[in-house]
Design goal:
The protein is of the alpha+beta class and 145 residues long. The protein is 41% helix and 12% strand.
């Protein structure tokens, strides 16, 4: 399981995610009532749509930071990202490998500790990496069946 360190998620909900991992490789949260400023909601909606168009992955809340994985499956994925693109890469590589996920609504709290690390330079770098990921996945051969 992984999550952010800014206490925006109730970690007791990991048990609910765990109860739903029986026939999928990962269970991912989506923020039922997102507690972020309006600009963050807008940029996130645009990013979710964009990564869906570029990578062909449809998911409600790509960057929701409450996810649970089957260890053996996660260890089998050839992950390269080490920043904001990691969530999109997890979905794209899981889809490419023939894996499945289940989406579960989770509680989202307002940020009371820490601060966002998103900057304009982060956005441009993530967009560049998004296109590079698309090319890398396309070069990796046909998807698993």
């Amino acid at each position: 399981c992984y999550t952010d360190a800014d206490a925006q998620f109730d970690l007791r909900e990991v048990l609910d995610l765990h109860d739903r991992i029986d026939r999928v490789e990962m269970v991912v949260g989506y923020r039922k009532k997102r507690r972020d400023p309006s600009i963050r909601l807008l940029t996130s909606a645009v990013y979710n749509r964009l990564q869906g168009l570029v990578l062909g992955v449809r998911v409600r809340d790509c960057n929701c930071a409450l996810k649970l994985f089957r260890r053996d499956f996660l260890q089998s994925l050839p992950l390269d990202s080490d920043a904001f693109l990691i969530d999109a890469e997890l979905f794209a590589r899981t889809r490419r490998a023939g894996g499945r996920w289940r989406e579960v609504g989770v509680t989202h709290r307002p940020r009371e500790q820490g601060s966002t690390t998103v900057k304009v330079s982060t956005i441009t770098e993530t967009l560049r990496e998004l296109w590079a990921l698309r090319r890398a996945i396309a070069r990796s051969g046909p998807p698993a069946k």
